[in-house]
Specification:
alpha/beta, Rossmann fold, five-stranded parallel sheet, 12% strand, Response regulator, Sig_transdc_resp-reg_receiver, CheY-like_superfamily, Bact_response_regulator, phosphoprotein
């Protein structure tokens, strides 16, 4: 089924102040904090947003409607975002505009190799950069007519969403060590920490990622990550 608001010919026409008016954006993102930032930018830009937190959820969305734009995080709990990007770009009903997002700046190369037309590096906070990136990958007829001033506004997601992400990590760290998805945990925390501009948390996660890349465990870094997550949660509760 095609969502009628996603058909460019009948959708509401964008304006200079709301350049994404009439678009439906499917955001495939497991972080609540990163999703909240994109939600606020879509709201300010006139776009409607739907969110999937994993590949399985994204496929359920795609069974019922086709978005105007898809924004896909590269690190997801049940697989790689690059695989979904290939599906969206090369399937029988391709999505016309597909963007990738990641806290890893090196992710851009993987995203473009998979077929993404644009890349949003986390943290995504600049409203103007977000709008420009989305507009750049849209067909000309979907863009607002005339000149448009690029806004310098930024968005600040609710820190409760950051706490939700930390609580998710804390839950993952409670399972038996042999069953912990360390790669995913470290990648997830790295992206969340970048979005929240939390340097110590990001450094702890990236120490684990470097060790994993060498094929080695880093129990000290994992313990440090666990302690930082717990301290952030306790501080959020106190606030």
């Amino acid at each position: 089924m095609t969502d009628p608001v996603d058909t460019y010919l009948i959708r509401r026409q964008p304006t200079a102040s709301r350049p994404l008016l009439g678009l439906t954006i499917l955001l495939v993102e497991d972080s609540r904090f990163a999703s909240e930032a994109v939600r606020l930018m879509c709201l300010r830009s006139g776009a409607r947003i739907r969110r999937a937190d994993c590949l399985a959820s994204a496929h359920k969305h795609l069974c019922t409607y086709r978005p105007s734009v898809a924004i896909v995080d590269l690190g997801l709990p049940d697989g790689h975002g690059e695989d979904l990007i290939r599906e969206l770009r090369g399937g029988p009903r391709p999505v016309q505009a597909v963007l990738a997002t990641s806290g890893d700046p090196d992710g851009a190369e993987r995203a473009f190799a998979a077929g993404a037309q644009g890349f949003l590096e986390k943290p995504v906070r600049s409203l103007g950069d977000f709008q420009q990136t989305v507009l750049h990958v849209l067909p000309p007829e979907a863009r607002p007519l005339g000149l448009r001033a690029v806004t310098e506004d930024t968005v600040d997601p609710d820190m409760l969403a950051f706490r939700d992400d930390l609580a998710h990590v804390a839950e993952l760290l409670t399972v038996a060590e042999s069953e912990q998805p360390i790669d995913y945990i470290a990648q997830f925390v790295s992206g969340v920490a970048r979005s929240a501009q939390d340097g110590p948390l990001c450094a702890a996660a990236e120490a684990i990622l470097r060790a994993q890349a060498r094929g080695a465990a880093n129990p000290v870094a994992l313990s440090r990550l666990r302690n930082i997550v717990q301290s952030r949660l306790e501080r959020q509760i106190a606030i």
